[in-house]
Amino acid sequence: MRMLYYVLILALALMPGFGPASADEIRVAVASNFTDAIKDVAEAFEKKAGHEVVLISGSTGKHYAQIINGAPFDAFFAADARRPRLLEEESVAVPGSRFTYAIGKLVLWSPDPALIDANARVLSHGNFRHLALANPKLAPYGKAAEQVMRARGVWEALQGRMVHGENVGQTFQFVKTGNAELGFVAYSQIKRAGDSTEGSFWEPPQSLYTPIEQQAVLLKDHPVARELMGFAKGDQARKIIRAHGYGTP
To answer: Of 88, 138, 165, 219, which one is least surrounded by beta carbons within 10 A?
Structure first.
């Protein structure tokens, strides 16, 4: 199995955008739910600092596995707090660099404006074929969706109708393209900066799931990566993050 990981890392290293970074370029692994927001943050950073940020989007679980096995990333914006903490404990991350950059919100969403009401009664007796959610074993938003459905007492009953995305980005696409009538996605995906996605949605009470505290961590003590992390903590970045539907610490 480890040999397969080494083959994967070698293949990544040979791909465009995965080779050694230049002095003014950094590689940043980012959770799929945060892709749109980090693009805007990175663009603002690039204009201010004059450096280039290469973003690689994917599930937090897969990024974690790649990082443990040597993937050439300089920083990691995860969809949870657990994986950055583990990287710090395993001496893979730069000590003391971990911080919370956003608080994620889970929503149940459908493009159908009449499908989801204020109490999400569709979960108990709705007429639908497929409900999408991110893989709870890999994605924090999937784990949160599982917690909500267990709290509502529908987890077991809906097993036969669930379709799992590798991450919340893929889950959103399942619903958007009609492969699932509804799904648990990130609020930031339906409330993009300056825009709102059509349809109906329910925002579960935060008491039903563990808060989605999204943390970032430095993987290499690269001066540009450290500068980006400092920028991500600042007022300009926090304003961008909130505009994309996240809370900020």
So the answer is: 88
Q: Return the amino acid letter for 181.
A: E
6 phi/psi in degrees, rounded to 5: -65, -35
Alpha helices of the chain — where are they, by DSSP H? 2-14, 35-49, 60-68, 82-89, 122-125, 140-152, 168-176, 187-190, 223-232, 235-243
| Whole-angstrom Cα Rg for the chain | 18
> Phi-psi bin for 87: left (phi > 0), alpha (psi -120 to 50), beta?
alpha
Most confident of 8-22, 26-40, 187-201: 26-40
Query: In angstroms, rounded to a whole number, what is the distance separating the alpha carbons of residues 169 and 133?
Result: 10
- Which residue is it, tokens 């007429």? 127
Whether 69 and 8 have beta carbons less than 8 Å apart is answered as yes
- 57 DSSP 8-state letter: E
Task: Assign 243 a pLDDT band (cuts: 50, 70, 90).
Answer: very high
Distance set, CA 88 to CA 30, 63, 67, 97, 164 (Å): 17, 15, 12, 9, 29
Residue 248 has which token pair? 């900020």
Q: Are 98 and 84 in contact (CB under 8 A)?
A: yes
Whether the pTM exceeds 0.85: the reply is: no
Query: H or E stretch including 107?
Result: strand 106-110
